[in-house]
Amino acid sequence: MAWLQATIQADSAVAERFADVLMEVGALSATIEDALAGTAEEQPIFGEPGEPVDQMWQHSLINCLFAEDADVAAMVAMAALKCGLPLPQYELGRVEEQDWVRLTQSQFDPIRISSRLWITPTWHQSPDPAAINLQLDPGLAFGTGSHPTTRLCLQWLDEQIKGGETVLDYGCGSGILAIAALKLGAGATRGIDIDAQAVRASIDNAAQNDVSADFGLPDSLLPGEYDVVVANILANPLRLLGGLLAGHVRAGGRIVLSGILQEQAEELAAIYSQWFDMDAPVFDDGWTRLSGVKRG
Q: What does the entry list as the binding residues for S-adenosyl-L-methionine (predicted)?
């Protein structure tokens, strides 16, 4: 089995509407990407969880898949007519059937976090069996170790967990930070996420790594203080959750925050300095890690 793929250039004013109409007239899928991706003019777009992204790439590519016997020219012409647009130019190619599972797996190799900490998908052998290896596969929940925000938090845990610390991972996603803390020697560890699928993924991932953590939704978080609170979410929820997170850190305990763009670091550090003596920020590829010690 094979498919036909049309690649259509579109500007930001029409890309989403045109992609939707292509689906209406018979496309099997339609995705939008930055036409300048991989160049110096690539345009990053970020949005907060639960909030719509209110911008689109100025120069977009719409990639559409069609059935092998589809009349692509007629469908593209019909979509353009429905949108009131001139007939666009497009490139037409053929996509052969592949082993998509194997192809996807080939894109995820083991990730070295430090000399002793690796993230290893289950289909790979560990590059260093003597190291601490977290077995984690890409899934529905955020957090495989490949994103700078996750790496920054893992590196902090690797450097700072000495053994026995109580840990709260707020916004646990895949559970990777809670699991890493336990594998590094932490004591009682709790993970919280607003997404029930993330909680389920965290439970499954912890079992796969032979560690035991307590994962749940926010309403299951009871009052209590921890030695370490880590929150790898994004700037907007971190702004709103400052008091709540600070309330769960014991005096002399540590907070670790990520999911913060470099240009947001100063503002977030100022907010959390109400409760914490903040360390110097650490940056990785435009993202920031903030950490601090809670004052008594």
A: 150, 171, 193, 232
